[in-house]
Every structure is written in structure tokens, then in C-alpha cells.
Amino acid sequence: MRRRDLIAASAAMPVLAAGGAAVASDTPAPGGQSLNMPGVGLPVIVGGRLRNYVFVSLRLHLGGSATPESMRTKEAFLRDALVRAGHRTPFVVADDWTRIDPAALSASLMRAAATIAGRGQVVRVEVVSQAPRRRTGVRSA
Known about the structure:
The protein contains four helices and five strands.
């Protein structure tokens, strides 16, 4: 197991433990409710320079009393918090400028969601897809 995989797995453990019986697969949250967030553009900044953009599609698994309708009103605030966090501390994968670290992104969005929507309203963040703006001329593993 590579070091990067081990770090990602250990970072995901608290998120999985908070979800109770949640399994690390595509199964929906206990209430079965989720909200999709397509096309969030996040920067890849290395050495103080912008190297690439990666567009991610996310699925927020909702818990508590959250419904997709109630969370849609907060989606713009969640996007803003995620983009701001991506510029402040980029979710960069070492030696690969075409991907974003899903564990770091999930942890950051979970913290922001607890502040914006309330604790327990978002139980898990799933990165559905990643599409880099530039695929050539950049480092990749």
C-alpha cells in the first residue's frame, strides 16, 4: 500500500465513523437523501503558482432533518466555502497536477457544512468525478 493511500484511508476513518453504519461505497446515507453539486472548479497551486484547475462533481449525503430542497438554498454558500478553502490551502495530490485529494476536500467541506447548514446535516461528502482542465504538459503519477 502506498503512503498516499494509507494517509487518505486514515483521513477518511473519522468521516466514516461519524456516519455510523455508513459503508465506503455508493450506498446512500441512512435517510437515502443526497444533493449533487456538479462542476466545482478548484485550483491546483504548487510553489505559489497556479498549475491547473480540476472540476469536481460532488454528492452530499444528508442526515438529520436535512432535505435536498432545504440544502439547495445553501449550495451557493457551500461552493463559496469550498473554492475559498481550495485557494487558501489547495487540495493538491503530490506529484499529480490533474487530481484533487478527495479526503482533504471531503474534510474541508464537512467542516464548512457544519458551520453553514448545522452539525449533522451533511454526513458524508463523495467525490463523484474529477476532470482536469489541462491533461498534458502537467505532472502526473
